Amino acid sequence: MGRFAETARLSSDFAMESGAFVIPDFTIEQLAEDAAEIARGFTLRTPTSAVSEALGVHDRVLAAMTRTRRPAQQTSLLLLAGQTAALLASAGIDLGLWDAARRYARAAYGYGDMIGHAGVLSYARGMQATIAYWTGRPADAVGYALAAVDLAPVGVASVRAHCILARAWAHSGNPDRVGQALRDADAARHVQGSDDLHDVIGGEFGFTVPQQARCASTAWLQVDLPLKARGAAETALHAVEQSDACSTALEAEVRLDLASCQILTRQPGEESETVSRTYETLRPVWDMPVEQRRTGLFGRLDRLTALLSAPSLQRLTEAQQLQQLAQGFSAGRPSMPALPPA
Fold it and tell me: Which domain of life is it from (predicted)?
């Protein structure tokens, strides 16, 4: 009986001591609201302000995790740590901070793995795929994207994962698999999901119809199918113009894709008309504030500048003006914040 009584006392003492390590539920509720607000307004923020705000919440979440032993609170906080790490990975990509983005994507996956959260896991793998194809590792990109597809809950998460897979296959030079991934994304769009990141919070974790069409146009351009790309870009631009919630960065990416498509699909003798049309397509892009500019825009500008260098276009004044505008735009890049280790 002595050992039984001692064990009971130790168990009671442990329970009381653990009970002292609890934070108010409203603290977690406030952190969740703050994280969701950043995600929903993510594309309307500058990348540097997104970093600052997401870092603030991320640090508060990690601090809160040291002050509670309650399993349910730990689970909620791990989810928030995964959310905010994922946002920091996305902001790192926007700024071209590849090492930092890679670390935060890996951290997001780790947090998601601890609690078995499919939405966080899929989003993190998608970020890793995106980083891989932007940094010239197409085979890694396909591997991460396939994992994102396998992990993705039904609904928006699946749409996003298949679109990222299409981009990864495009960088691997496989148009047939690009087409299949895009068809799978279309099918996934018609399935209602309930993931608390992709379907409930949305914003940066969402994936809109304009984003989906933009993704298709970029993928088709990557595999040198400009007619398919042009159709997708025109669909994307129409969707952007019909939406009140699209970011200026998304619209600029769509317009740059469409401009490249217009040049690539021109007929002989239509050079002057094509360049004039392209000039009008791009007119809204050039006034974008420096702090709003993202990595995705610069890659598209590089492709456009190369296309404008064709001998049949170089003699045209408007083509020369477009090149100058593109070079000036690329010269203006947002200041790079310091991202601490994940």
Answer: Bacteria
